[in-house]
Specification:
The complex is a heterodimer of chains A (126) and B (404).
Chain A (H helix, E strand, L loop, with lengths): L4 H8 L14 E8 L4 E9 L5 E9 L2 H14 L4 H6 L2 H8 L6 H22 L1
Antiparallel strand pairs in A: 1-2, 2-3
Chain B lengths: L5 E2 L10 H7 L16 H20 L7 E4 L2 H15 L6 E5 L4 H12 L3 E5 L9 H7 L4 E5 L13 H11 L2 E5 L18 E5 L10 E5 L27 H39 L3 E3 L10 E6 L4 H7 L3 E2 L1 E2 L12 H5 L4 H4 L2 E5 L6 H20 L2 H7 L13
Helix pairs in contact in B: 1-7, 2-7, 3-4, 7-11
The chains are: A alpha+beta (126), B alpha/beta (404).
Chain lengths: 126, 404
C-alpha cells in the first residue's frame, strides 16, 4: 500500500508535536485508542479566555496515517472556537489526506481525540 | 523499483540466484521437450534434466530421488501431505496433530479437514516459540495418523526439535510431516536421522524459482496418500500434470548450491545477525526479541520496539524492505497470530518487525539498517504518548483503554 503525498508530508514533518502540562486549567487533554489495537492518540488544546483554541499539541502511537491524521487535526484546530472545533468531522480529514478505506479508522480516532480534549477542558471549567 | 532499497525480507521470498537462472534457461527454448514423452530425443533430454533435479533435491534432505514429488510449491506440498494422508486413512484413523504457529496453508488445510470430519489438535508453543515434547506425547492417541510440525517458523525463525519429534512419532507409529519451506538449505536436514515421513519444500525460499516445490514421501516404510490432482498419473500417481522442466531444473540447482554453501553461508549470516542485534540492543532500551535466539536460523530476527507501532516504523525506514507483525495494513487489523501464540501481548505485537538476512545481504547493508532503525525508533518514541507515559512511570496496562 502506498501513502498519499499529504500523509507522507505530515508523517515526515509532523506539526505541533509535544505536550502541554495537562494539569493547567486552560489545557484540555484527550487520550483515545488502545495500545492493543495499534493506535493511541493524545491531543491537547490550549484555550484562551475568549474560548478560542490558541495552541495545540499531539503525540501519536500508530501507523503513518494515524500520525498524519492527528498532525493534520492540530492544524485544523488552531484559531477555532470550541464550537467550531466540535463540528469537525472525520471525513474532512479523510478527504484532506486522501486516506484509503482501510485507514478511515485513523480519522475517526482523530475526531474522537478532538472531542475528548474539548470534554476534558469543559470538565475542568465546571 | 531500482535501488537504493535494501531487501531484508528473505523469509517472504528470495531472488533467484543467477546460477539457477542460467541452469534453467536452455529448458525454455532449445531443450523444451515434454519429460514424459518417451519416444523421442526431446523427451529423453527433458526427462534426464528432471531426473538430475530430483536427485539434487533428494540429496539436500538425505532422501532417495524416487521419494521426491514435484509440486507447485510448499502450499501444495502441505495440502497434499495433510489431505493426502488424512483421506487415504479415512475410516481407520481420524486424528491429526499440528501446532498453533504453523503457516496459514497448514492451519487452513487443517480447518478444511475438520469440516470433513477429522479431529485436529493444535499444540501451543512456549514463549520461545518451540513446542513441548510432553504436549506432543500427551496429544497422541490411537486415532492419531499424522503429526505436522514445521521445521522453521516463517515469522520468528525458530527451529523445532525435529529429531526428537521424529523419534517420538516413530516410536508411537504415527507419521511425521514437516513443512520445511523455511528450513531447506538453511539448516542441515536428514529424513533418516530425523525420522521424517513427509517433508515440504519451496523453491523460492532458497533462491530458486517461484511456482515450484516438492514433497518428500517416504518409501520405506511406504507412506501412502490420496492424490489431489488427477490426470496422467505423473509423479507415481501422486501428482498428475506435465512437469515444468525449467522450474524443476531450477529447484534442483538451487538445492545443489544451497547444500554446498550452507555451512559457510550460515556462519556469515550468523555474523550479520549478531552485528544487527547487538547494535540495536546497545542503542535502544525496551527492545524485545521474539522467539529463541539460539534455536533459530541465522537469517532471521523478530524484534518488538515497544511504544512504536510497526507500520508507522516501516514508513520511517522506507529504504528497508522488511515486514511487520502489526498487520495494520491488512483489513483485519489483527496482529500476528504467531506472536500471540508465543504469548507476546497485542500491544507489543503491534510494535514488531521481522528482519530477514540472506545470500545477497552485505555487512554494510546490515549496519546501515540497524542505524536507520535506531534513529527512526528514537524519533517515533519522542512522539509516542505511550513512551511518554512509560517514562513518567505510568504502567500502560493500568490505564483503562477503550477498544475501537
Amino acid at each position: 500500500m502506498s501513502y498519499s503525498k499529504k500523509v507522507i508530508d505530515h508523517y515526515e514533518n509532523p506539526r505541533n508535536v509535544g505536550s502541554f502540562d495537562a494539569s493547567e486549567k486552560n489545557v484540555g487533554t484527550g487520550l483515545v485508542g488502545a495500545p492493543a489495537c495499534g493506535d493511541v492518540m493524545k491531543l491537547q488544546i490550549k484555550v484562551n479566555e475568549a474560548g478560542i483554541i490558541e495552541d495545540v499539541r499531539f503525540k501519536t502511537f500508530g501507523c503513518g496515517s494515524a500520525i498524519a491524521s492527528s498532525s493534520f487535526a492540530t492544524e485544523m484546530l488552531k484559531g477555532k472556537t470550541l464550537e467550531q472545533a466540535h463540528q469537525i468531522k472525520n471525513m474532512e480529514i479523510v478527504e484532506a489526506l486522501d486516506l484509503p478505506p482501510v485507514k478511515i479508522h485513523c480519522s475517526i480516532l482523530a475526531e474522537d481525540a478532538i472531542k475528548a480534549a474539548i470534554a476534558d477542558w469543559e470538565k475542568k471549567k465546571d | 523499483m531500482k535501488n537504493p532499497l535494501i531487501y531484508l525480507d528473505y523469509q517472504a521470498t528470495t531472488p533467484c540466484d543467477s546460477r539457477v537462472v542460467d541452469a534453467m534457461l536452455p529448458y525454455f527454448t532449445q531443450s523444451f521437450g515434454n519429460p514424459h514423452s518417451r519416444n523421442h530425443a526431446y523427451g529423453w533430454e527433458a526427462e534426464k534434466a528432471v531426473d538430475t533435479a530430483r536427485a539434487q533435491v533428494a540429496a539436500i534432505i538425505g532422501a532417495d530421488p524416487r521419494e521426491i514429488v514435484f509440486t507447485s510449491g510448499a502450499t501444495e506440498s502441505n495440502n497434499l501431505a495433510l489431505k493426502g494422508v488424512a483421506r487415504f486413512n479415512k475410516g481407520q484413523k481420524n486424528h491429526i496433530i499440528t501446532c498453533m504457529t504453523e503457516h496459514k496453508c497448514v492451519l487452513d488445510t487443517c480447518r478444511h479437514l475438520q469440516e470433513e470430519g477429522f479431529q485436529i489438535t493444535y499444540l501451543p508453543v512456549q514463549t520461545n516459540g518451540l513446542i513441548r515434547l510432553e504436549d506432543l506425547e500427551n496429544a497422541i492417541t490411537d486415532q492419531t495418523v499424522l503429526v505436522s510440525i514445521m521445521a522453521v517458523n516463517n515469522e520468528v525463525g525458530v527451529i523445532q526439535p525435529l529429531k526428537e519429534i521424529g523419534a517420538l512419532c516413530r516410536q508411537r507409529g504415527v507419521l511425521f510431516h514437516t513443512d520445511a519451506a523455511q528450513a531447506v538449505g538453511k539448516i542441515p536436514l536428514n529424513v533418516e536421522e530425523m525420522n521424517i515421513d513427509l517433508l515440504s519444500i519451496s523453491g523460492h525460499k532458497l533462491y530458486g524459482p517461484k511456482g515450484i516445490g516438492a514433497l518428500y514421501v517416504r518409501r520405506k516404510p511406504r507412506v501412502r496418500l490420496q492424490a489431489l490432482i488427477h490426470g496422467g498419473d505423473q509423479e507415481r500417481g501422486m501428482r498428475s500434470g506435465t512437469l515444468p522442466t525449467p522450474l524443476c531444473v531450477g529447484l534442483g540447482k538451487a538445492c545443489e548450491i544451497a547444500q554446498v554453501e550452507m555451512e559457510t553461508e550460515a556462519k556469515r549470516l550468523k555474523n550479520l545477525q549478531t552485528i544487527f542485534y547487538t547494535h540495536v540492543m546497545k542503542e535502544l532500551p525496551e527492545v524485545f526479541l521474539n522467539g529463541d535466539l539460539d534455536q533459530r536460523i541465522p537469517g532471521n530476527l523478530n524484534l518488538s520496539f515497544a511504544y512504536v507501532e510497526g507500520e508507522g516504523l516501516m514508513m520511517g525506514i522506507k529504504e528497508l524492505c522488511v515486514s511487520s507483525g502489526s498487520a495494520c495494513t491488512s483489513a483485519s487489523l489483527e496482529p500476528s497470530y504467531v506472536l500471540k501464540a508465543l504469548g507476546v501481548g497485542e500491544e507489543l505485537a503491534h510494535t514488531s518487525l521481522r528482519l530477514g538476512f540472506g545470500r545477497f545481504t552485505t555487512e554494510k547493508e546490515v549496519i546501515f539498517a540497524a542505524e536507520k532503525i535506531v534513529s527512526a525508533v528514537r524519533k517515533l518514541r519522542d512522539m509516542s504518548p505511550l513512551w511518554e507515559l512509560a517514562q513518567a512511570g505510568v504502567d500502560i496496562k493500568s490505564i483503562q483503554w477503550a477498544g475501537h
